[in-house]
Design brief:
Elements: H1 5-18, E1 23-24, H2 31-34, E2 48-51, H3 55-67, E3 72-75, E4 89-92, E5 99-102, E6 107-111, H4 116-124, H5 140-145, H6 153-156, E7 163-169, E8 175-178, H7 184-190, E9 199-206, E10 212-220, H8 225-236, E11 243-251, E12 266-274, H9 278-284, H10 286-289, E13 296-297, E14 300-303, H11 308-311, E15 320-327, H12 332-342, E16 351-356, E17 378-385, H13 392-398, H14 400-408, H15 429-433, H16 438-451
Parallel strand pairs: 2-4, 3-4
Antiparallel strand pairs: 1-2, 5-6, 6-9, 7-8, 7-9, 10-12, 10-13, 10-14, 11-12, 11-16, 15-17, 16-17
Helix pairs in contact: 1-3, 12-14
This protein binds flavin-adenine dinucleotide.
Length: about 475
Amino acid sequence: MTTSTSAITPVVATLRAEVAGPVLLPEDPGFATATVGFQTYGPHRPDVAVLATTTADVRAAVRVAADHDLPVAVLNSGHGVPPRYTGGLLVATRDLAGVRVDPGRRVAWIEAGAPWSAVIEAAGAHGLAPLSGSTPHVGAVGYTLGGGLGLLARRFGYAADHVREIELVTADGTTRSVTARTHPDLFWASRGGGGNFGVVTGMEVDLFPVPTLYGGGLFYDAPLVGEALRAWRDWTSAAPEEITTSVALVPFPDVDGVPDPLRGRHVLHVRIAATLDVATGDEVIAPLRAVGPRLLDAVGELPYTDSATICSDPTEPMGYQTTNLFLDGLPDQALSGVLDRVGPGAPSPQVLEIRHLGGALRRPPAEANCVSHRDAEYLLGLTRRTPPDATPEQAAALRAPHAEVRAALRPWSTGASYLNFLDGDGADTERVRSAYTPENYRRLADTKARWDPRNLFRHNRNVPPTAPTSPN
Ligand SMILES: Cc1cc2nc3c(=O)[nH]c(=O)nc-3n(C[C@H](O)[C@H](O)[C@H](O)COP(=O)(O)OP(=O)(O)OC[C@H]3O[C@@H](n4cnc5c(N)ncnc54)[C@H](O)[C@@H]3O)c2cc1C
């Protein structure tokens, strides 16, 4: 709900007195660019945006918002926007983007706005790598708060499993150093609980001695897509933990910028990242190459600093709608259900991705966190491009195949979702609930009631606080 001009004016005056960074109203130049990032569909309309330049700015913004009962949203890269909201205060963190690496302790301190690319570069200078994901443009903090399923996930687990300290501005406007020792409940909940517990101004994460990878992509043309998909599924059953793979069905447009062999083709892209030497890696993926000729085969040794080339995710802002589900298995019937609806020749071009899970993802971290559903075998995601100005009816038509694919996969779906891939209006309360086991969800809601009982931080993938129980 929008706050009236008479109510917002004193808020803005206080913010401008207390915050060093720009404080913008919707009519101010720069407001539109400050409030939109990668995702351009489903615009948000906060009453006021604070472009934080220091952690003190974040603290002041949260305190002022709390004093005036204004909900607080956080925007960094815009790769995981929450359901559409109107009103409240937006804290934009992209100018708070420092990264410090301590090579001796193999850790990085990452400020709220740093993209993975900055961490990869800083760590790479010391032969180290973070647990980053498919694209280095995603914000490291936002990604880690939601779990963080990375290129080397089967080898090292979730990024949230390797956080040492979180600097968090809680709903009372206090900055807290959150560790397993200082605030066990917040530490457990923040690693996997998204932005529900405050604004993170920085975090310390582990780095790993991975200067180079065995990795890249294999691309199969439409006639081989079904066979390659089945071969990949069979191969995953015995793949070692050192190798993490995913497959994507991608309908490439026939436009400049798409590599020539892929232009205008609907392909299967097998994405590979492994901590293996080239000879062992080639041996391990031989059954995938044996399927037949590839349009492109670019798997080999590459520096971790080039790891963005493995998935080649889009980098320019775009509008899209997504859905995702964890799966226990992928029998032929499940694969046919997917291919019939979104494979080559299907009426509705969608990007479909299936990630192979297992390995270290199954094991709880040394310090438990709320990341759930560790037993699932695969994670499936669907993405449909959607113009920023699509009407609700147009948007619904574009995402219709999502429901069809979900229905076709019901027998093999665990019913659970992955928090980080819940986006826009698809990140409603029920889908967020499905990202956790019932026990973890209850514990998250209780933690929320303790630290943010008014749900100040609700413009996110929200876990509402447990309702207070009556004293009688
Ligand atoms: C192309 C693409 C590739 C992706 N690849 C992966 C992947 O490989 N693995 C994976 O796990 N995820 C992946 N994601 C999902 C991504 O990690 C999540 O959507 C994540 O939330 C994005 O964080 P952000 O800060 O970049 O985005 P934003 O949209 O700016 O933020 C998303 C949400 O994160 C929370 N948040 C961000 N920063 C803070 C903060 N400082 N304090 C408190 N809350 C905060 C807020 O609730 C905010 O609404 C991908 C997304 C896209 C679009």
